[in-house]
Amino acid sequence: MGLFTIKHSLIKSGILQGKTDIHCHLLPGVDDGSPDTAHTLELLSFMEQLGYKELWFTPHVMHGMGNTAARLQERLNEFLPAYQGDLKIHLASEYMMDEGFEERLTTDPLPLGKNHLLVETSYMSAPANLEDILLSVWNHHYKPLIPHPERYMYMEEDDYWYLHDKGYEFQLNLMSLSGYYGSRAKYVAEELLMKDFYDYVGSDLHHLERYQSMLMRLKLRTKQLDKLEQLLENNGNI
Protein backbone atom coordinates (compact mmCIF):
# COMPACT_ATOMS: atom_id res chain seq x y z
CA MET A 1 0.00 0.00 0.00
CA GLY A 2 1.45 3.36 -1.01
CA LEU A 3 1.85 6.16 1.50
CA PHE A 4 -0.71 8.27 -0.36
CA THR A 5 -3.44 5.76 0.55
CA ILE A 6 -2.71 5.65 4.31
CA LYS A 7 -5.45 7.30 6.34
CA HIS A 8 -5.32 8.81 9.80
CA SER A 9 -7.99 9.34 12.44
CA LEU A 10 -9.22 12.93 12.44
CA ILE A 11 -9.76 12.87 16.20
CA LYS A 12 -6.36 11.33 17.00
CA SER A 13 -4.62 13.80 14.68
CA GLY A 14 -5.25 16.56 17.22
CA ILE A 15 -6.03 19.24 14.64
CA LEU A 16 -9.31 20.17 16.37
CA GLN A 17 -7.53 21.07 19.59
CA GLY A 18 -7.89 24.76 20.46
CA LYS A 19 -9.84 25.51 17.29
CA THR A 20 -12.98 27.47 16.44
CA ASP A 21 -16.19 26.09 14.96
CA ILE A 22 -17.91 28.75 12.84
CA HIS A 23 -21.16 26.92 12.05
CA CYS A 24 -23.40 25.01 14.45
CA HIS A 25 -27.04 24.92 15.49
CA LEU A 26 -26.73 24.71 19.25
CA LEU A 27 -28.77 27.73 20.36
CA PRO A 28 -31.69 25.91 22.02
CA GLY A 29 -35.24 26.03 20.76
CA VAL A 30 -34.89 28.33 17.76
CA ASP A 31 -34.50 26.06 14.70
CA ASP A 32 -34.02 22.42 13.72
CA GLY A 33 -30.95 22.11 15.92
CA SER A 34 -30.89 21.67 19.68
CA PRO A 35 -34.45 21.64 21.06
CA ASP A 36 -33.66 22.72 24.61
CA THR A 37 -31.00 23.73 27.11
CA ALA A 38 -30.28 20.17 28.26
CA HIS A 39 -29.47 19.07 24.71
CA THR A 40 -27.30 22.12 24.12
CA LEU A 41 -25.29 21.43 27.26
CA GLU A 42 -24.74 17.85 26.09
CA LEU A 43 -23.63 19.06 22.67
CA LEU A 44 -21.29 21.64 24.16
CA SER A 45 -19.73 18.94 26.35
CA PHE A 46 -19.09 16.92 23.19
CA MET A 47 -17.43 19.91 21.50
CA GLU A 48 -15.26 20.43 24.57
CA GLN A 49 -14.18 16.78 24.42
CA LEU A 50 -13.17 17.25 20.78
CA GLY A 51 -10.90 20.10 21.84
CA TYR A 52 -12.74 23.13 20.47
CA LYS A 53 -12.23 26.39 22.40
CA GLU A 54 -14.55 28.75 20.56
CA LEU A 55 -17.95 28.37 18.87
CA TRP A 56 -20.25 30.44 16.70
CA PHE A 57 -23.93 29.63 17.14
CA THR A 58 -25.47 30.13 13.68
CA PRO A 59 -29.23 29.53 13.88
CA HIS A 60 -31.26 29.48 10.69
CA VAL A 61 -33.00 32.68 9.61
CA MET A 62 -35.55 32.34 6.82
CA HIS A 63 -38.93 33.58 5.67
CA GLY A 64 -41.77 32.75 8.04
CA MET A 65 -39.51 31.41 10.80
CA GLY A 66 -39.70 34.38 13.14
CA ASN A 67 -36.01 34.51 14.01
CA THR A 68 -34.72 38.06 14.31
CA ALA A 69 -31.41 39.35 15.64
CA ALA A 70 -33.18 40.62 18.75
CA ARG A 71 -34.95 37.31 19.42
CA LEU A 72 -31.80 35.25 18.92
CA GLN A 73 -29.70 37.55 21.12
CA GLU A 74 -32.37 37.36 23.82
CA ARG A 75 -32.39 33.56 23.61
CA LEU A 76 -28.59 33.45 23.89
CA ASN A 77 -28.68 35.73 26.94
CA GLU A 78 -31.24 33.39 28.53
CA PHE A 79 -29.10 30.33 27.84
CA LEU A 80 -25.60 31.48 28.80
CA PRO A 81 -26.10 31.43 32.61
CA ALA A 82 -26.82 27.69 32.33
CA TYR A 83 -23.44 26.98 30.73
CA GLN A 84 -20.48 26.67 33.09
CA GLY A 85 -17.88 25.41 30.60
CA ASP A 86 -14.84 27.06 29.04
CA LEU A 87 -16.02 27.43 25.44
CA LYS A 88 -16.17 30.98 24.18
CA ILE A 89 -19.55 31.41 22.46
CA HIS A 90 -20.53 33.94 19.80
CA LEU A 91 -23.75 34.53 17.90
CA ALA A 92 -24.25 34.86 14.14
CA SER A 93 -26.90 33.47 11.76
CA GLU A 94 -27.22 31.28 8.69
CA TYR A 95 -29.41 33.20 6.24
CA MET A 96 -31.57 31.59 3.60
CA MET A 97 -31.43 33.67 0.41
CA ASP A 98 -35.22 33.71 0.03
CA GLU A 99 -37.93 36.29 -0.52
CA GLY A 100 -37.31 38.05 2.78
CA PHE A 101 -33.54 38.09 2.60
CA GLU A 102 -33.06 41.61 1.20
CA GLU A 103 -35.08 43.16 4.02
CA ARG A 104 -33.17 41.20 6.66
CA LEU A 105 -29.89 42.20 5.05
CA THR A 106 -30.83 45.86 5.40
CA THR A 107 -32.37 45.86 8.85
CA ASP A 108 -31.37 42.78 10.84
CA PRO A 109 -28.01 41.20 10.02
CA LEU A 110 -26.04 39.04 12.45
CA PRO A 111 -22.62 38.76 10.78
CA LEU A 112 -20.12 35.98 11.30
CA GLY A 113 -16.82 37.31 12.59
CA LYS A 114 -15.70 40.73 11.43
CA ASN A 115 -17.78 41.05 8.28
CA HIS A 116 -18.85 37.69 6.84
CA LEU A 117 -22.45 36.69 6.25
CA LEU A 118 -23.34 32.99 6.14
CA VAL A 119 -25.78 32.67 3.21
CA GLU A 120 -27.38 29.47 1.95
CA THR A 121 -29.85 28.33 -0.70
CA SER A 122 -32.23 25.41 -1.02
CA TYR A 123 -30.39 22.13 -1.59
CA MET A 124 -32.37 21.47 -4.76
CA SER A 125 -32.35 24.86 -6.52
CA ALA A 126 -30.87 28.32 -6.32
CA PRO A 127 -32.95 31.51 -6.38
CA ALA A 128 -33.26 32.89 -9.92
CA ASN A 129 -31.52 36.08 -8.84
CA LEU A 130 -28.68 34.42 -6.92
CA GLU A 131 -25.99 36.62 -8.46
CA ASP A 132 -27.91 39.79 -7.65
CA ILE A 133 -28.39 38.66 -4.05
CA LEU A 134 -24.71 37.86 -3.58
CA LEU A 135 -23.76 41.21 -5.08
CA SER A 136 -26.18 42.91 -2.70
CA VAL A 137 -24.37 41.30 0.23
CA TRP A 138 -21.11 42.80 -1.04
CA ASN A 139 -22.81 46.17 -1.47
CA HIS A 140 -23.83 46.07 2.19
CA HIS A 141 -20.15 45.62 3.06
CA TYR A 142 -20.34 41.94 4.02
CA LYS A 143 -18.44 39.04 2.49
CA PRO A 144 -20.81 36.27 1.38
CA LEU A 145 -19.75 32.91 2.80
CA ILE A 146 -21.58 29.98 1.19
CA PRO A 147 -21.86 27.00 3.54
CA HIS A 148 -21.75 23.35 2.45
CA PRO A 149 -21.65 23.94 -1.35
CA GLU A 150 -20.91 20.22 -1.73
CA ARG A 151 -24.49 19.50 -0.66
CA TYR A 152 -26.23 21.61 -3.32
CA MET A 153 -27.63 19.11 -5.78
CA TYR A 154 -28.09 21.70 -8.53
CA MET A 155 -24.43 22.71 -8.63
CA GLU A 156 -22.10 21.34 -11.27
CA GLU A 157 -18.34 21.78 -11.60
CA ASP A 158 -18.74 24.94 -13.69
CA ASP A 159 -20.87 26.51 -10.95
CA TYR A 160 -18.17 25.97 -8.33
CA TRP A 161 -15.51 27.43 -10.62
CA TYR A 162 -17.71 30.42 -11.46
CA LEU A 163 -18.47 31.33 -7.84
CA HIS A 164 -14.89 30.68 -6.76
CA ASP A 165 -13.50 32.89 -9.54
CA LYS A 166 -15.94 35.64 -8.55
CA GLY A 167 -14.35 35.70 -5.12
CA TYR A 168 -17.18 34.15 -3.15
CA GLU A 169 -16.00 32.02 -0.26
CA PHE A 170 -16.98 28.43 0.57
CA GLN A 171 -17.35 26.67 3.91
CA LEU A 172 -16.92 22.90 4.04
CA ASN A 173 -19.18 20.84 6.28
CA LEU A 174 -16.71 18.69 8.18
CA MET A 175 -18.97 15.65 8.12
CA SER A 176 -19.34 15.71 4.34
CA LEU A 177 -15.94 14.01 4.30
CA SER A 178 -17.38 11.06 6.25
CA GLY A 179 -20.29 10.35 3.93
CA TYR A 180 -22.75 11.68 6.51
CA TYR A 181 -24.66 13.50 3.74
CA GLY A 182 -24.27 10.78 1.15
CA SER A 183 -21.72 9.67 -1.44
CA ARG A 184 -22.21 12.61 -3.81
CA ALA A 185 -21.55 15.21 -1.12
CA LYS A 186 -18.50 13.24 0.03
CA TYR A 187 -17.07 13.06 -3.48
CA VAL A 188 -17.63 16.75 -4.19
CA ALA A 189 -16.22 17.76 -0.79
CA GLU A 190 -13.04 15.78 -1.40
CA GLU A 191 -12.65 17.31 -4.87
CA LEU A 192 -13.21 20.89 -3.70
CA LEU A 193 -10.88 20.39 -0.74
CA MET A 194 -8.03 19.19 -2.92
CA LYS A 195 -8.59 22.06 -5.37
CA ASP A 196 -8.34 24.57 -2.49
CA PHE A 197 -11.83 25.90 -3.15
CA TYR A 198 -12.76 25.99 0.55
CA ASP A 199 -11.91 28.89 2.81
CA TYR A 200 -13.39 27.68 6.10
CA VAL A 201 -14.83 24.56 7.72
CA GLY A 202 -17.77 24.14 10.10
CA SER A 203 -19.33 21.27 12.00
CA ASP A 204 -22.94 22.24 11.14
CA LEU A 205 -23.74 20.27 14.27
CA HIS A 206 -27.47 19.84 15.01
CA HIS A 207 -27.51 16.69 17.17
CA LEU A 208 -25.30 13.73 18.10
CA GLU A 209 -27.33 11.03 16.35
CA ARG A 210 -24.98 9.38 13.83
CA TYR A 211 -22.77 12.49 13.88
CA GLN A 212 -20.72 11.45 16.90
CA SER A 213 -20.11 7.86 15.82
CA MET A 214 -19.26 8.79 12.22
CA LEU A 215 -16.90 11.56 13.32
CA MET A 216 -15.07 9.22 15.65
CA ARG A 217 -14.53 6.82 12.74
CA LEU A 218 -13.54 9.48 10.21
CA LYS A 219 -10.12 8.88 8.65
CA LEU A 220 -8.39 11.14 6.15
CA ARG A 221 -5.25 11.12 4.07
CA THR A 222 -2.32 13.23 5.22
CA LYS A 223 -2.87 15.83 2.51
CA GLN A 224 -6.55 16.10 3.39
CA LEU A 225 -5.67 16.62 7.05
CA ASP A 226 -3.15 19.31 6.13
CA LYS A 227 -5.71 21.21 4.08
CA LEU A 228 -8.34 20.80 6.77
CA GLU A 229 -5.95 22.13 9.39
CA GLN A 230 -5.45 25.28 7.30
CA LEU A 231 -9.22 25.81 7.11
CA LEU A 232 -9.42 25.46 10.89
CA GLU A 233 -6.69 28.09 11.22
CA ASN A 234 -8.74 30.36 8.95
CA ASN A 235 -11.72 29.87 11.26
CA GLY A 236 -9.81 31.46 14.09
CA ASN A 237 -9.16 34.57 12.02
CA ILE A 238 -12.66 35.12 10.73
Topology of helices and strands:
Layout: E1 7-9, H1 10-13, E2 20-24, H2 37-50, E3 54-57, E4 60-61, H3 69-79, E5 88-91, E6 94-96, H4 101-107, E7 116-120, H5 130-139, E8 143-147, H6 157-165, E9 169-173, H7 183-194, E10 200-202, H8 211-217, E11 219-221, H9 222-236
Parallel strand pairs: 2-3, 3-5, 4-6, 6-7, 7-8, 8-9, 9-10
Antiparallel strand pairs: 1-11
Question: What are its keywords?
Answer:
238 residues, alpha/beta, three-stranded parallel β-sheet, 9 helices
Could you explain how this protein is built, in words?
The structure is a single chain. 37% of the residues lie in helices and 18% in strands. It has 238 residues and is an alpha/beta fold. β9, α7 and β10 form a beta-alpha-beta unit. The longest helix is centred in the last third of the chain and has 15 residues, at 222-236.
